[in-house]
Amino acid sequence: MEECVMPGTEKIRTLQEWSAEQLQHYMLAHHPEDYYLIDVRQLPAYAVEHLPGALRIPAEDLPGRLATLDASKTTIVYCDEGALSHVAAQIMSKSGFPDVHVLEGGLQAWQHGTVSGSPQQVCVPLFGAGDVKDQAVLAWSMEETARCFYQEMADTLEDAEVAALFAQLATAEKHHKTLLKELWEALAGQTAKETFSAGTSASDLMEGGVRLEEALHWAAESRPAQIIDFAMAMELSAFDHYLYLHRNLTDPDSQRLFEVLADEERHHLKDLGKALDRLRKTP
Known about the structure:
This protein is an alpha/beta fold.
């Protein structure tokens, strides 16, 4: 039975959020070559406006770019609203970057001095050690809660294009569930019962480690741009997790499945980024 040991929780440290004022002071006191200021948004948003000296690394490219960066440098990560950059910073932290910070509230806080926040500090999901069947069940559960969130956004958001995108994401999560269930059945050599995922530690968690009820309550009082930023944080978390499984499992079928899932999450990030860019351009 193949074991897959996930990164330990001891590797995830509490990230320090910097206010716009703190970042300004830091940038004035240090040479740009002495630190990284990483913008994880899409190219159109970066082209319109970005912080001085910011290095553009779109969120979907970050895991593949880490090896090209100097981990010893102080790093500050930012996005539009703050949720996406928090997950990006957590990925860097668990990958060996000891001095990573997040611009609190993202570019919106830098521009307008307001911090909207997200349901909680979104973090990379850590499933612990377990065999591939366990990983499939946990992933299935988190895909289901993400589907519920996306479907609720599709049903309630007034912007037709954004609502349609969330409907597509809900359908994609349903497809992911089917693939993960088929993987479990192939590994277990039996048909999965409807309750096969009951009692898992992720039964009420979404991709990114946020509880569904909390996320829905927060979204009901949030702007579409905030919700998209939060969704991008979830997708980045899932992308990183599936990429890890793809790289660390040895069973070819499991490797291929998680590679496919990682690639789809990467495309979801791009689609959400385009939607966010469109909202930013709308008067």
